[in-house]
Amino acid sequence: MHHVAAKFVSRILTTDQKQQHVNVCTELRQLTSDDEIFLSRVIIDDESWVYGYDPETKQQSSQWKSPTSPRPKKARQVKINVKSMIITFFEVKGIVHKEFVPTGQTVNSGFYCDVLR
Is the pLDDT of residue 23 over 90? Predict the structure, then answer.
């Protein structure tokens, strides 16, 4: 017997949803074979949380110690209360646009339309 963890999936799809994914992928495959520059016109986006850190330089964290004393330990950096969301738009060649979301702003289709204008 082995103790194993279940594989995490974002959601379990119904048969209809799986078929729709197959249909979309088949259509995209056909579009890319018909038009060589199709993928170069595709733009995708990503939403990411960005946390603020209060970094300490290596020199700031150094300590004096005797040859017999144990090596000092340093804890991992702790996030501070600064947390922002950034939306980034990419294409084949790299980043097209990036924008920080204002605090308290709901990210929905209306917000995306404003960003893209």
Answer: yes
How many degrees, rounded to 5, is the angle at CA 47 between CA 13 and CA 5?
A: 45
Give pTM, 2 decimals.
0.52
Question: Could you give the CA distance from residue 71 to residue 1 in angstroms, rounded to a whole number?
Answer: 41
Instruction: Write the DSSP string, 23-88.
Output: HHHHHHHHHHHH-TTTGGG--EEEEEEEEEE----HHHH-----TTSPPP--PPPPEEEEEEEEEE
Q: Which residue has the tokens 């040859």?
A: 67
Note the residue count of the chain: 117
Domain boundaries, the chain: 13-41, 43-55+76-117
